[in-house]
Design goal:
Elements: E1 2-7, E2 10-15, H1 22-29, E3 48-51, E4 54-57, E5 70-72, H2 84-91, H3 101-114, H4 120-127, H5 137-155
Parallel strand pairs: 1-5
Antiparallel strand pairs: 1-2, 3-4, 3-5
Bound molecules: FE2/S2 (inorganic) cluster (FES) (2 copies).
Length: about 170
């Protein structure tokens, strides 16, 4: 069955069974391998992508549910790795083995898009479904806070220099 959707801002049509999980379509049909398969049961978050900006577990989402919607994967988070989270992730060396990190970044970016200044508790709640076997949780939380600060700096207007009066 042909399914039309937009993947990383590109209109796309895939001819697959309607019940095929979106994750399979992304990885095996569209060759977008950044999104990972972990549990296949919506329990680990490794397969997280955005559907119309909302984080979803693509391992259990039939592709038919994505018809007519915008799907964003880790490959589409930014064109050149310039999303504040991607920059901070490198700066702080957040990943260890890296397997869970695409999912972590997609959940974190959805959080910052809806809540630019999350508290520790809000970060922990938003990220609770993303499991990291390497236990990088503290660096993930630090990274989200640092990226939030970086984003705030980017949107804050530069202060005009104060004039010296000589008095
Ligand atoms: S692979 Fe989808 S939540 Fe684990
Ligand atoms: S960095 Fe290894 S599972 Fe998270």
């Amino acid at each position: 069955m042909p399914v039309k959707l937009t993947v990383n801002a590109k209109p796309t049509t895939v001819d697959v069974p309607a019940e095929m999980p979106l994750l399979w379509v992304l990885r095996d049909v569209l060759d977008l391998k950044g999104t990972k398969f972990g549990c296949g049961m919506a329990q680990c978050g490794a397969c997280t992508v955005h559907l119309d900006g909302v984080p979803v577990r693509s391992c259990i989402l039939p592709v038919s549910k994505a018809a007519g919607k915008r799907v964003t994967t880790i490959e589409g988070l930014s064109e050149d790795g310039s999303h504040p989270l991607q920059k901070v992730w490198c700066e702080l060396d957040v990943p260890q083995c890296g397997y869970c990190q695409a999912g972590q970044l997609m959940s974190a970016s959805a959080l910052l898009a809806s809540n630019p200044h999350p508290s520790d508790a809000q970060i922990d709640t938003a990220m609770a479904g993303n499991i990291c076997r390497c236990a990088t949780y503290l660096r993930i939380r630090e990274g989200i806070k640092k990226a939030a600060a970086m984003k705030a700096e980017q949107v804050a207007p530069a202060r005009p220099a104060r004039k010296r009066t000589g008095k």
